[in-house]
Amino acid sequence: MRKINLPLTKNIIKTLRQGEEVLLTGLVLTARDAAHKRLVNTLESKEKMPISLKDETIYYTGPTPAMPGEIIGSCGPTTSSRMDPFTLVLLKKGLLGMIGKGERSDKIQAAIKRFGAVYFVTIGGAGAYLSQKIKGNTVLAYNDLGTEAIHRLILEDFPAVVALK
């Protein structure tokens, strides 16, 4: 498997091939449905964004609380199609990568190609295993959303497959 350092760049994405297995290392954001909705509402109302999306990768996950002495609880992917209503707006703001599970709508597949972005899939049902690949965790925004708050994670050799680009 090829190792990919994050953050992504357009040049890195150009070298990826659909179906390629990769190990992701570096910084990602987390966001699920509620955070996506709030981000888009913030953009539409022209308020100040709590984070920058430029060149970011979002992992579609809502990590469970960490046990004492742990960095994070279970941290598996959620169904990516639930983020499709919000994805185009975020791609326009510079989002380059997404990690989740499942299919994307035809509209979002086309947008990923048009914006030169990439969609990775990872192992559904393996949140405990995937949490071992997370070496750092900080809440950045929307703490009131609990497990759906936006986190900054540090990944190390996080397994994924290039699904769309």
Structure description:
The longest helix is centred in the N-terminal third of the chain and has 12 residues. The chain starts with a strand and ends with a strand. The protein is globular and about 45 Å long. The mean pLDDT is about 95. The protein has a single domain, classed as fumarase (Alpha-Beta Barrel), CATH 3.20.130.10. Strands 2-3-4-5-7 form a 5-stranded mixed β-barrel. The chain has 5 helices and 7 strands, in the order βαβαβαβαβαββ. It is an alpha/beta fold and about 160 residues long. Helix 2 packs across helix 3 and helix 3 packs parallel to helix 4. It is about 25% helix and about 30% strand. Strand 2, helix 2 and strand 3 form a beta-alpha-beta unit.
Write a concise keyword list for the protein shown above.
single chain; 165 residues; alpha/beta; fumarase; 5-stranded mixed β-barrel; 5 helices; 7 strands; 25% helix
